Every structure is written in structure tokens, then in C-alpha cells.
Amino acid sequence: MTEIVLLGTGNVATHLFKAFTASEEIHVKQVYNHSNNTLDFFRNKTEVTTSISELTSAHIYIMALKDDVIPEVAAKLQQKDALVVHTSGSVAIDALADCPRRGVFYPLQTFSKDNEVDYSQIPFCLEANSPNDLELLKKVAGMISGKSYEISSAQRKKLHLSAVFVCNFVNHLYAVGEQICQKSGIPFEILKPLIAETSRKVQHASPAKVQTGPAIRNDRSTIDAHLQLLESSEENREIYKLLTSAIQTFHGKKL
Length: 255
Hints:
about 40% helix, about 15% strand, alpha/beta
């Protein structure tokens, strides 16, 4: 049985807790957060604490915390005889330099507390400062997911950047599309099969090879018509122009 202390109560921490407690091979001994009222979800399921000094012993301490507090909290864990890891996509393993045994346990997924996810399909990006601890992280990842990758801090920063493009930015474009529909009295649901098919395509082909639309066709009349429709929103108009230019430049189209 692998014993874990989980530090944090946000989206990532909550989802990891659910995944860990569903495994018969993992025991979440304790959950920590500095704010007592954020511990309510965990209180009747395991031991909780608001004090770093009251952390119990465990094999792994997992910090699912805001990026800017990771070094500070890690410094308080340096005396623990255990592996200390964080779950951030953009923080280097060196942020845990005070901890003799350190690593990264980064689940590459978008998490919302109320949305369930298929943990078996979540890729875990792993890093550790010793081969033995890397194997330990692989073992734990394998208990809840079928996918894990050894990714360095430098690679993970680029991966996190890629994730912002394919997830956060794309989701904002969904929000813009929804807003345009709402203002026009059109149900956003009409676009959902298109969203699903676009996502399905890139599961089997390079996104560059399945690009469609007026930009790659250099359909100037359609592009100009769209820009006219966006005259009331300068921000969205600039986004449209920027993405159109980016698509054409990427594919070597003449602007």
C-alpha cells in the first residue's frame, strides 16, 4: 500500500483524491490546506489538517498547490523522509531543491471539480531526481492511469505551453462562438457536432493536415464578410484577423 499525503484542495487535488481513493493500492493518509473551510469535502473521508507541522508520515507528499507557493511549502517539507512532488505543468523540479527526494507528478488534463474524468486515460508526466523515485512515481501513476511519460522540466514547460494553445485558447474561442450565437438567437448546441468532429479528427491525423475553412482556402470574400460582422467587437475582429493570418502563414498561403 502506497501512503500519500495530499497538499491542496483545488481542482487537481480533488480529482487526484478521487482517483487515489478508488485504488485499492493507494491510501491517502491526510489532506492539508491552510484554509479550514476548503477541507470540508475531505473531512469525513480521511484525516485533514491546516498545519504543516502536523503532517503525518507517508511515502509521497504531493503538492497540488498554486505555482507561486510551491518553493515555500517545499522548504517546510525538507526534513521529511519521503518523496516530495508537485503537480504543476510550468514549475521546474528545481523549485523543490530543498527536498533531498523530489519529483513531478503532472496530470495533463483540464479539471473542474464537478466534471468527472476518465482517470485511466489521463497521461501523467513524471520526473524525479533519482531512478528509484522515478520508478515509484511510475508505479503510482500506473495504479490510476494507463499512460505515463518521463518528461523533463524543460520539456514540460513546452508541453504546458502547447496545452494552453489546444485547451485554454480553444475553449475561449468556443466561448466567443457561443456569445455570437446567443446574440443572434441561435442555439449553441448546433455547433457541438462540429466541435466533436474537429476533436475526433486530430485523434487520428495531424491537425495541420485536417485544417479547413476560409483562411486556408484564401476565401477573401468570406473573410471580409466575417470581418464586417465583427465590426461591433474590435477584440474578436483582431482575433479573427490574427488567426486567419497565422493559418495562412503556417500553410504557406499567399496573404
